[in-house]
Fold this protein.
Amino acid sequence: MNSGRLRKAPENFIARDGVARVFAEARNGRRDFLRGAFAAAAAGAALPAAAQAAAPNDGDPNILNLPEHTRGLGQAVATDGYGKPSKYERNVQRRQSPGLTQTTQASVSFAPLQSLFGIVTPSGLHFERHHQGWWDIDPSKHRFMVNGMVKNAKVFTMDELMRLPAVSRFHFIECGANTGMEWGNVAVPTCQYTHGMLSCSEFTGVPLITLLELAGADLKNGRFVLAEGGDGSSMTRTIPMSMIRSGEVLVAYGQNGEMLRPEQGYPLRLVVPGVQGVSWVKYLRRVEVGDQPYGAKDETVHYVDLMPDGQHRQYTSIQECKSVVTTPSGGQQLLDKGFYNITGLAWSGRGKVKKVDVSVDGGRSWRTARLETPVLSKCLTRFNIDWVWDGKPAIIQSRATDDTGYVQPTYRQLRAVRGTRSIYHNNAIQSWLVEESGEVKNVQLS
Ligand SMILES: Nc1nc2c(c(=O)[nH]1)N[C@H]1C(S)=C(S)[C@@H](COP(=O)(O)O)O[C@H]1N2
Ligand SMILES: [Mo]
């Protein structure tokens, strides 16, 4: 059943035995397979819903005992004009960390990375970071202004913007504070909370350079652009013209095939590939061309890194190469020893992911994971690697390398440069401890 994948597997596919054993169990009959796979769960607690539903009718010759969904009429089309996930997936939610912030408006919700496949974050599960709450702004009233060092300051309506040549690109967005709590210690139990200020979408919009050219911007002396949001947070950030000139920076209205979600800045947001989330200004209403960095509050007081010598590092906007194993990860429970697919995400703000190595012995030995396509620049990359768990304690880690040759650091390496007092820009290797009981926990190796 999975033979296509097996045939394509590279030479270092060491887990063939594990796969074969699992599939042999499956051939012995579905009940036996389920009984084996869920033995641990059955011993302690109730069988998972899927196992319960599948088991009773399996092999039963009495047609009347077939499940309802094979005999009756299903739901009508468009029962729900905008579809929702299965009710059995209700647990897959973005979540806030109680006590992390004092209000729910100036706060954050984390994406459930452990439950997602591939590289695209479903829009309803995109992490949120609002400094002053979110808005659902009437697009017919929204305006976007270009001013500063330009010949003709311009104000665009949404209709005008959407007539212009558009591009669609896949990019990750990561808050600079993602994994921030781990600087101090092992603060939180799951990868949703350690790494969930991370999402990836296909964004559609107009390259900012097009709009600057339409306004006759001074692209020679105007070396910086200030981007300003329309919410109450006075969110303004400086974007270097060099990034904009490359055509990468977008004034975006589309996300995963539809308009942006209100939480993500509807109807307009800046997309600044590779740069920390705070520069992706939402509810974007204005850009101003200038000849020096603006030193806005979110560039001088916040989003700076306190270095070991007591000085603050500023304008360190690019999210360095990083990765995390999303399964098995903290809070999950392995049911039995045997075959597991280790999977995770890797990304770099400087380009493409070139390689991901995975260790199951706390970094003593490494194997190279398979990168799933597409592998895109400044985008999440999915990796997978086979593992046969022998039932003994294991420490699972991933280490990404990007196409500049930069290798994701250990905590020891990161702290040697950055000290211990940072909040932002933690891209260290994450460790998950698998205990003999199968319980997976967040641990930090020094
Ligand atoms: N206007 C505005 N833009 C904003 C913010 C905000 O509060 N207001 N938060 C910023 C921060 S800190 C981050 S990490 C990202 C989060 O984007 P998201 O909510 O779409 O995940 O938006 C950025 N842009
Ligand atoms: Mo952020």
User: Anything to note?
Assistant: The radius of gyration is 24 Å. Residues 129, 175-177, 277-278 surround molybdenum atom (ligand 2) (CB under 6 Å).
